[in-house]
Amino acid sequence: MSEAIDHGMPRLALLNLTAAALHVSAAVALLTVRELSTFLGPVQLSHYANPTQPFAAVDLAAAAAVVALISATTRLFVLLPAVRTVYELGLREGRHGIRWIEYSQTAGITAFLVAMFNGVAEAGALILVYAIAAGSVMLLWLQDRSTVPGARGLLPFSIGAAIAIVPWGVIALYHVVGLFAGPHPSLLGQFGTLALLVIAAAHWVSVWLDHQQLSAWASPLMAERVHIGLALATSAVFLALVLLAPTAGPEEWML
Which CATH number fits domain 2-253: 1.20.1070, 2.40.128, 2.40.170, 3.40.1760? Predict the structure, then answer.
């Protein structure tokens, strides 16, 4: 196993470099393929605030570019000589601290944007969605420190997964209510919601498989490869959303 890990590290370094290049390319495309006007809608300090005087506005292309650049920066950071030594040693021991710092931020921003797809406009609700999604991931840092095999060793993971469901539950509530009472997410918004939900769920499933050491996850490098792939999938979904809505304004997301 140790020899297999040693042989896999150079390939992992190449994968990190390739992923960084792809994330940067996605960010550049998001910021240059068209003018920044892919607005998801106004952000209100209160549900009753005047919609003509929003607290802020969120541009999907710019926000998605931030997500891609966070992942790109992380992939390049772990290639720095001093950091790479610590990074590879951590992977050998089943520890992924840098990964959780990256994913906590990308998961938080992603949940924030998906909430906006589904009509959440109150600043307080959006901030809570971001904070809960990001905070739940940090419990996986504690999961890395767990050495108890089996179900008992999954306590931090289980608590984190339960917390991570909360923002998606809020999103589901707005989605379902919108379908019956309107406005409801457009087909574009529904596609984005479903695709990003599947990616979020896949992250947590990968952590569970890694802890159980099942099948291909018997290698400690497998979960890192899956994480890198899912981060690239997130950037790809955001890029697709912007390209599919070249003149998107708030009306493109809610019907």
Answer: 1.20.1070
